[in-house]
Specification:
By secondary structure, the protein is an alpha/beta fold. Helices cover 35% and strands 17% of the residues. It contains 10 helices and 10 strands. The strands form 2 sheets. Strands 2-10-9-8-7-6-3 form a 7-stranded mixed β-sheet, sandwiched between helices. Strands 1-5-4 form a 3-stranded mixed β-sheet. Helix 1 packs antiparallel against helix 2 (14-45). The termini are far apart.
């Protein structure tokens, strides 16, 4: 406006001022378009549709729709149940636990009965050379939960080929299990609580009556535990053993659908085992498989955080999301 007023007052210098005005308008347009592009890029890099819903194993067991929305957002599918035949033959009835014969009816009584098995289970795992920890009711865990993770939707295309795809936070999952087998004795390494990245596999224990009355609910609980402990886990991809320590035992675990087509797409597999011992050894073999190390680092990964000059994520910590490299650029 000032330039136009000066142009009208100057007369002879009108052409010169017109040139200045035109150049200024072009410069401002360029800056504005650049700013719009930066804003668009920032919006694409940030999670959209933030949800405040907290999903726990217990709520998932009774609210099927909440778990369904979580599974759909991750584009997970659960394979048909198969038998872990090799392990069933090798570890048939190696260890048994006998529940009291009393028929308990209330939920509180079943929970109390379930807890009586934890010392026997941890003692058996110690015999096998594991580092088991009772984490029932959040014991030995930070804020009494084993995991608390934001779960993000799956990118629709291979993120290494199409970077900058927006992701949506579907739920926050939080909870615990009954017993965990760790990769190390956390107390000997200066830790005061169990961290999710230490866990090799989880064990969800049910009484015979508890599992008989709600088998599908038990499975839904285990799926939330599987998702919560695997999400952005750069160390392990922990399986979940579900057992009534009698005749029903199965293992849930995570696998990639296709390394070539979409390295971030996963599915849940389930294997039925003939004994608790077979289920534990099958889960341990999965945890120790070198090909599965770091498999879950990209599972439910949120937006890539800024990285400092030394290559360390600025959101470093127990649940920090690791920076991922294109597998094609990583030397074997």
């Amino acid at each position: 406006i000032l330039l136009k007023q000066q142009q009208a007052a100057s007369g002879d210098n009108g052409d010169e001022l017109t040139d200045v005005l035109t150049a200024l308008q072009a410069s401002l347009a360029t800056e504005f378009n650049g700013l719009k592009l930066e804003v668009a890029q920032m919006k694409g890099a940030l999670p959209s549709g933030v949800s405040t819903m907290m999903l726990t194993p217990t709520t998932a067991s009774t609210k099927k729709d909440s778990l369904t929305s979580l599974i759909d957002g991750l584009r997970l599918n659960v394979e048909p149940i198969l038998d872990a035949d090799d392990y069933n033959e090798r570890y048939a009835e190696r260890w048994k636990f006998k529940w009291p014969a009393d028929k308990l009816r209330t939920r509180q009584e079943l929970i109390a009965l379930e807890k009586t098995s934890y010392p026997f289970v941890t003692a058996y795992l110690k015999e096998l050379g594991f580092f088991p920890v009772d984490v029932g009711n959040g014991e030995n865990c930070t804020d009494r939960v084993l995991f608390r993770k934001d779960i993000y939707s799956l990118r629709l295309q291979d993120p290494f080929k199409v970077p900058g795809q927006p992701v949506t936070r579907i739920h926050t999952v939080s909870g615990c299990t009954d017993v965990v087998a760790l990769s190390r004795d956390f107390t000997q390494e200066g830790y005061r609580e169990v961290r999710s990245w230490m866990v090799k596999f989880l064990i969800e224990i049910k009484t015979v009556a508890g599992m008989a009355g709600s088998g599908s609910n038990c499975r839904r609980e285990a799926i939330v535990q599987l998702i919560g402990t695997n999400a952005a886990n750069a160390e392990f991809a922990p399986p979940v053993v579900v057992s009534n320590l009698a005749k029903t035992h199965f293992v849930l675990y995570l696998v990639r659908v296709s390394e070539d087509k979409h390295p971030f797409e996963f599915q849940i597999r389930e294997r039925k085992c003939g004994s608790f011992s077979a289920a534990v050894h099958f889960a341990a073999a999965l945890a120790d498989d070198p090909a599965r190390k770091g498999l879950a680092a990209s599972f439910s990964r949120g937006s890539t955080p800024p990285v400092s000059g030394d290559g360390v994520s600025e959101s470093s910590g127990d649940d920090a999301v690791p920076e991922l490299e294109d597998p094609a650029n990583v030397d074997e």
